Amino acid sequence: xxxPLYCNKNNYRMNNxxxxxxxxxxxxxxKAQGELVSSEWLxxxxxxxxxxxxxxxxxxxxxxxxxxxEGKNGGxxxxxxxxxxxxxxxxxxxxxxxxLGHQKNTPNPRCPVxxxxxxxxxxxxxxxxxxxxxxxxxxxxxxxxAKFV
Amino acid sequence: xxxPLYCNKNNYRMNNxxxxxxxxxxxxxxKAQGELVSSEWLxxxxxxxxxxxxxxxxxxxxxxxxxxxEGKNGGxxxxxxxxxxxxxxxxxxxxxxxxLGHQKNTPNPRCPVxxxxxxxxxxxxxxxxxxxxxxxxxxxxxxxxAKFV
DNA sequence: AAAACTGTAACAAAATTATTTACAATATAA
DNA sequence: TTATATTGTAAATAATTTTGTTACAGTTTT
Lengths: 149, 149
Description:
Mean pLDDT of chain A: 83
Strand content of chain A: 5-15%
Shape of chain A: elongated
Oligomer: homodimer
Distance between the termini of chain A: 34 Å
Largest sheet of chain A: 2 strands, antiparallel
Helix content of chain A: 40-55%
Order of helices and strands of chain A: HHHEEHHH
Number of helices of chain A: 6
């Protein structure tokens, strides 16, 4: 279900850019009220390439947020009610590496601090991310989408 | 005091890798109990280049966490008590772009959603980051450092 | 005066992220 | 049934960001 932790070729890795793209897509789909929306159209609002949108749609589909229909007049709609999609769940769908963590963190094992720091950092990052997700979970896609006219 | 929001040349930009490096440095300095520690030595424990350490030390110094002494037998020490340095403050010293934000987020202004999404995203990011910093602030450098033998 | 450092800058390399292109597969509509 | 619009996916390329390296002037101690 989840993408592998390290995937360099055709999938993204970071938490950053993808969250806003995913959320933007989902708001647009919510506003479309069930009508099929093409990746071309979504890309036009976000001002990125349709292929980027389609890549993110793969993930959103795998996470059960959206469903797509192929072929002419095809497109994508929400797969569940916007009130049943929490922002925390969206975050988790794009998240792949720990929030504050390091890519190549290979401290010196001969140093008492270096030897243990990764374990302690992991604990800290996990606790922190848990709080972050809880905070995001206070809001659903419906809540966020309602901010737009 | 703070680095500019966009700085591509000789300064870093992201939140990720720097936090662990900064924290690692500060733990090592705390363990040194006031003795001057060279960037070479710090780099040895973290297993990165001394110049990288020195770059991060510039920032830590500007934020008042450490002080350095130049010249032979020089080095760096903590500039305040470890119990007076919160992890949230360390995070803020390395943070430069918003937590979940996008680099180039230039949505289509002709779309009602695209036109307003950045404002709403900013609000969301700020609220979320506030919670994250509050969580990190529950722990001081002294607390974190105490986890190491 | 030599040696061991810091402080910086400039440059180079690696990794990540974004864009583009292409095209097979699928479904609709003329 | 053929043309068309659209997804699904891969591959290649470009842009950007991040990390690492080298170099050396300036400081302080010995």
